């Protein structure tokens, strides 16, 4: 049924858009609360502030536009990531091959969340506005992308290892893969340098952590949501359920 | 249930799939990372417009 790349790609785009909208709603209702609190901290510093604008009189983009633009950005990222996700799914030759498309997609979404969201979040936790030295942004970006790449390599390595161990009984195979992943994650967390920026003293610790946890919730919504919706869209079982529903009604 | 593995070998990935995936990565980069490297001056507008989303998705920012 869903056997061409084009049909997978279109479903990836649709699933990414839906997961992106869900994540953008989490942003509007949850993440914006600590963002507002952080912007108030930044404004309180104002006299010395120059350069980066977050609203106010002479801002390049007003606060309202930033809220809408931020949500739009999340939806666009969802669609773009959905396309990449579908392509990786289409190329995968050993990812849980004995499972249904829905299970494969859900596991893939969870793995991608771990690699490109949870792992970088653990090493370089998300920071709200008013935290972060503009001087170090390129260095921080390089470190962040480095952890993302390392996370994806770990996922790829785990699937390779599981394939190599397929002659082993399942409990042995799963334990071995989990141990290898844990060891690789530990190496990444130790090997990458500590975050370069200190948290300014005027940033309340509850605002900081409310923001970080909101950010993680939003990332989970995006990536796990993508895995779930893509799985629903590609699994023939979804359609069979719908068809039998219709038959039952008729 | 669905027949496993059967659909796997059936998916033929054309060459343009890699271009499509690359496009997805470029769009993600433009929204989350554009700090002036690729677009120069117009990037600041883009940067400020997507500002909240970038923070919310945990990407390093200013």
TrEMBL record, chain B:
<keyword id="KW-0812">Transmembrane</keyword>
<protein>
    <submittedName>
        <fullName>CbtB-domain containing protein</fullName>
    </submittedName>
</protein>
<feature type="transmembrane region" description="Helical">
    <location>
        <begin position="16"/>
        <end position="32"/>
    </location>
</feature>
<keyword id="KW-0472">Membrane</keyword>
<dbReference type="Pfam" id="PF09489">
    <property type="entry name" value="CbtB"/>
</dbReference>
<dbReference type="InterPro" id="IPR012667">
    <property type="entry name" value="CbtB_put"/>
</dbReference>
<keyword id="KW-1133">Transmembrane helix</keyword>
């Amino acid at each position: 049924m869903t056997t061409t790349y084009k049909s997978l790609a279109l479903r990836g785009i649709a699933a990414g858009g839906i997961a992106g909208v869900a994540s953008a709603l989490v942003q509007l209702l949850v993440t914006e609360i600590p963002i507002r609190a952080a912007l108030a901290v930044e404004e309180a510093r104002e006299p010395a502030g120059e350069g980066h604008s977050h609203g106010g009189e002479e801002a390049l983009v007003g606060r309202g536009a930033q809220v809408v633009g931020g949500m739009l950005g999340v939806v666009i990222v969802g669609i773009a990531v959905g396309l990449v996700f579908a392509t990786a799914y289409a190329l995968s030759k050993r990812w849980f091959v004995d499972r249904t498309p829905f299970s494969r997609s859900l596991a893939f979404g969870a793995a991608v969340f771990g690699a490109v969201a949870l792992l970088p979040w653990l090493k370089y936790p998300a920071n709200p506005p008013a935290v972060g030295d503009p001087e170090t942004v390129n260095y921080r970006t390089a470190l962040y992308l480095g952890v993302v790449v390392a996370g994806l390599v770990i996922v790829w390595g785990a699937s390779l290892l599981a394939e190599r161990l397929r002659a082993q009984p399942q409990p042995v195979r799963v334990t071995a893969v989990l141990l290898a992943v844990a060891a690789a994650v530990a190496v990444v967390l130790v090997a990458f340098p500590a975050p370069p920026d200190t948290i300014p003293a005027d940033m309340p610790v509850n605002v900081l952590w409310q923001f970080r946890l909101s950010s993680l919730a939003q990332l989970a919504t995006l990536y796990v949501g993508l895995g779930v919706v893509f799985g629903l869209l590609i699994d023939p079982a979804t359609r069979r359920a719908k068809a039998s529903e219709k038959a039952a009604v008729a | 249930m669905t027949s496993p593995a059967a659909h796997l070998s059936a998916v033929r990935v054309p060459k343009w799939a890699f271009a499509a995936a690359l496009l997805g990565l470029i769009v993600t980069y433009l929204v989350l990372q554009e700090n002036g490297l690729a677009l120069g001056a117009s990037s600041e507008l883009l940067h400020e417009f997507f500002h909240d989303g970038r923070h919310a998705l945990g990407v390093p920012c200013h």
